[in-house]
Design brief:
Mean pLDDT: 92
Structural class: mainly beta
Low-confidence stretches: none
Radius of gyration: 22 Å
Number of domains: 1
Order of helices and strands: EEEEEEEEEEEEEEEEEEEEEHH
CATH topology: UDP N-Acetylglucosamine Acyltransferase, domain 1
CATH architecture: 3 Solenoid
CATH class: Mainly Beta
Largest sheet: 12 strands, mixed
Oligomer: single chain
Shape: globular
Number of strands: 21
């Protein structure tokens, strides 16, 4: 299949001359127009040309056997290298995903590192891990979790959280960021997923149990 999404230009990276800037051959997503230049790749194997929206912006880099796809965007000076993979993700600032690490729905930002066989994965569309600060993740982080500051997640550790409140992991320990939705009262119909309240049926059931 011919690459009709982008081309690799002759513009080389100032520090790493084996990397070249890309240029869009068509509009990509809502931001990139045909002719816009992007970040740096080593080859076409680094950025999918079969999906619609994945892109490398600014001075971000994809190198070696690393692969960017499924709507992932790299911004600023983010780097993906080694044999890392990123799907449905956002990498920004000076974030780095390297070695055999995988991001499958999530955000990596600031000076955060995902190394070794580290994994950051979403559980649902609203429960996405955020790897931030100057942390380093070698293990597994999934769901509504923020790993930040100088926290280290070791290779044999798995931190998973499926709740509404965000689990926050730092080098000092763990805490919880309460979701604003937790303080909003809703009807029983909404809470239980009923089409209409079934309060009377509930009373009858309790009386029968007595």
């Amino acid at each position: 299949m011919n690459n009709q999404k982008y081309e690799i230009t002759d513009i080389v990276h100032e520090k790493y001359p084996f990397l070249h800037r890309i240029r869009a051959l068509r509009d990509i997503g809502s931001e990139v127009k045909a002719g816009d230049v992007g970040g740096f790749v080593e080859s076409e194997s680094n950025l999918s040309y079969e999906d619609a929206d994945s892109w490398i912006y600014d001075d971000a880099i994809a190198a070696n056997g690393a692969f960017v796809c499924d709507g992932t965007v790299l911004r600023d000076q983010a780097v993906i290298c080694g044999e890392a993979r990123v799907y449905k993700a956002v990498l920004s600032d000076h974030a780095r995903v390297e070695d055999h690490a995988l991001v499958d729905g999530g955000r990596v930002e600031n000076y955060a590192r995902l190394c070794g066989y580290g994994l950051a994965a979403s559980i649902a569309a609203t429960k996405i891990p955020l790897i931030s600060g100057e942390c380093t993740v070698y293990g597994v982080v999934s769901g509504n979790v923020l790993v930040t500051s100088q926290a280290v997640v070791l290779g044999d550790e798995k931190i998973a959280h499926d709740g509404l409140d965000r689990l926050v992991v730092t080098e000092s320990g763990r805490s919880s960021q309460r979701s604003p939705d937790r303080d909003r009262l809703v009807t029983s119909a909404e809470y239980f997923g009923w089409d209409r309240p079934k309060r009377k049926q509930g009373h009858k059931r309790k009386e029968a149990e007595r």
